[in-house]
Amino acid sequence: MFNIVLSDGDYDEMVPFMKGLNASSDDISYRLIIHTANWGRTGKWSEVRRYLKYFIIPLKYFVFRKKYDIVIGWQQFYALLFSFYCVMFRVKKTNRIVVLNYTYKEKKGILSRPYKWFMRKCTNTKYLDYIHVNSCEYADYVSREFNYPRERIVAVPFGVMDEYRRWAKVDRPEGFEDKEYFLSIGRSNRDYDFLIDSWKGIDYPLVIISDTYVNRTNNPNIIIKNDITGEEQYPWIANCKAVIIPIENAHISSGDTVLLSSMSLKKIVLVSDPSTLSEMYIKSGENGLAFTKDKDSFKKLVLEAIQGKYDYICENARICFLEKYTREQMAKSIAEGINF
Question: If we measure between CA atoms, which residue out of 235, 216, 236, 213 comes closest to residue 226?
Answer without folding.
Answer: 213
